[in-house]
User: Which sequence fits this backbone?
């Protein structure tokens, strides 16, 4: 029996998820060096509060990117849902019916994106850049300059009170529950396997009988529903609905997903990696906050993470292509061997 070589034995240790674990532990060590408050229960709860809604939005986006598409309207859907919730409460609706309307609005937002991408054949990047602005504009029209903060305390307490006696926020608990559901669906079902096939080779998926358009449409609808739910949680955490809730969060969501090892080209990634990326991103943000790092400048960190998440996984293929090109140039430069 052939013994595995060194590369095969080290392959599990070189997985992207292992790198994320190492990065997380490094940030934790550095965070404790920076401040003795880093591992306190109060600070960990603040960390969870700051990342909860972002983390929730990463889950449907992970599935969409796996199929080779993208949804840049996730934060605008959150903002639109928050604005609609505020509008309905302002006009005397009960919260129960308001929740239903907001979720239906999320379905409509996701369906609109999905129809344009799957039925009209438009690129998802262009479509969701457009709906990013469209949904944000609708939020302005719906709520206008109004600031709604008349939500019942039993709901707003969800955003400011921990889950039980833990340091976890309610939004993070919801994220972990959804992560298990998404993880099982992605990694343990034929539906999940079809997403990888679609992302790796769409034409092969079609020839294999996979309903590519229907699946992509479903994923955009799921994204709308989950982002609408995140919008409700975001509103309750701030105890306020305003037209610009969630403004600018879309790049943070994309950065986390790509940091989790999901290929921007589709066909590669895992929910475990995204969950670890959420932990890394939240810990890094919190550690920088404790060093009095300007929060407005955190966009620099997000941009660097985006670039690293794209460059590092593809570094090997870049090197292989460069070597292949070099060999071709060398072969062309060699003199032809004359045959006598």
Assistant:
């Amino acid at each position: 029996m052939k013994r595995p070589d060194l590369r095969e034995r080290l392959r599990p240790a070189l997985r992207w998820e292992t790198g994320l674990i190492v990065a997380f532990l490094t940030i934790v060590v550095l965070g404790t060096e920076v401040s003795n408050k880093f591992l306190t229960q109060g600070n960990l709860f603040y960390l969870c509060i700051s990342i909860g809604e972002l983390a929730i939005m990463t889950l449907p986006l992970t599935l969409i990117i796996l199929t080779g598409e993208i949804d840049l309207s996730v934060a605008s859907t959150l903002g639109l849902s928050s604005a609609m919730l505020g509008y309905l409460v302002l006009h005397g609706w009960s919260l129960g019916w308001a929740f239903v309307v907001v979720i239906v609005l999320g379905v409509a937002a996701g369906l609109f994106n999905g129809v344009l991408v799957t039925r009209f054949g438009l690129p998802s990047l262009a479509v969701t850049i457009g709906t990013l602005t469209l949904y944000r504009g609708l939020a302005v029209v719906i709520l206008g300059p109004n600031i709604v903060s008349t939500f019942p305390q039993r709901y707003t307490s969800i955003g400011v009170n921990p889950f039980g006696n833990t340091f976890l926020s309610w939004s993070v608990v919801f994220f972990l529950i959804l992560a298990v559901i998404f993880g099982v669906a992605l990694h343990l079902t034929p539906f999940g396997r079809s997403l990888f096939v679609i992302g790796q080779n769409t034409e092969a998926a079609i020839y294999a009988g996979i309903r590519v358009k229907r699946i992509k449409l479903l994923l955009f609808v799921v994204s709308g529903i989950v982002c609408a739910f995140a919008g409700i949680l975001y509103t309750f955490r701030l105890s306020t609905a305003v037209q610009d809730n969630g403004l600018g969060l879309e790049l943070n969501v994309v950065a986390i997903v790509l940091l989790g090892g999901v290929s921007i080209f589709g066909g590669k990634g895992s929910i475990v990696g995204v969950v670890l990326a959420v932990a890394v991103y939240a810990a890094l943000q919190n550690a920088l906050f404790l060093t009095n790092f300007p929060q407005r400048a955190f966009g620099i960190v997000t941009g660097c993470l985006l670039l690293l998440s794209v460059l590092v996984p593809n570094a090997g293929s870049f090197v292989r292509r460069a070597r292949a090109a070099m060999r071709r140039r060398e072969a062309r430069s060699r003199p032809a061997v004359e045959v006598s």
